[in-house]
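Build the 3D complex.
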Amino acid sequence: MLRFVCFFLVVVAGTSGELCISRAMKEAGEVHDFRPAALLQVAARVMRIQWLWIGLALMTVGFFALLGILSVENVSFVVPVTALSYVVGGLGGMLFLGERLNRSRWAGILLVCLGVALVILGKH
Amino acid sequence: MEAHVREKHLRLKTRLMILIMILAGPLGNTLLGKGMKQIGPVSVSSWSVVLQTLGAILSSGTIWLGIALMITFFVAYSLVLSWADYSYVQPASAMAYAVVAILGVLVLHETVSPLRWLGIGVICLGVFVVGQTHPNTTESR
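Done.
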């Protein structure tokens, strides 16, 4: 049960957190200049966006849940299973960020999911 | 012509960031796994046990090194998300699953069954399919 809750938190809280951060980064604008001073300016700008902090809080929950599962399961099993977040990510990207997912991108996401299913089936 | 050059530059920039992501992320996960295995199964039976585990996590050098690599991954990820779609970046970073499995076998001596390798291969195929699509669909063109 605890494992299930942990996997759920890694997938749902982790992915929601990433979506919030993606939204914050989109609000901050595209990064063109990779010099340290310019990157610091971007960081300062991003830190004023509320979505970043909501995202970080959700990702922290997902991170500790990940540590919990890693204490009992193998990395080569845990990490591929967390790829279930592709479904959440695809839907979230479409609904929350207004991204358009074309047919080939959906096909890619579905293939990734099929791969994850095989990884779970191949546990033993 | 200018649009073509810009598109090429965008793809190059995106792929470089994804490369950093698929190296730093899996290595970070491997070290987190190693550190947590050293600590042992986590229990939430009481607050004192939780605090004790938290203390063990925060005093593990392996876990801190893993966290540093995850932060590297996270910075590259955040940068790439400022110009590319989340639904493009997330599956593209799935290459990391192959790297995690290889590191799991080499560093942590985990056993990966043929079916699991097949699953990882299918994930990489999915990544290839996603890689053929344009990295930004929200920008008006």
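The longest helix of chain A spans residues 2-28.
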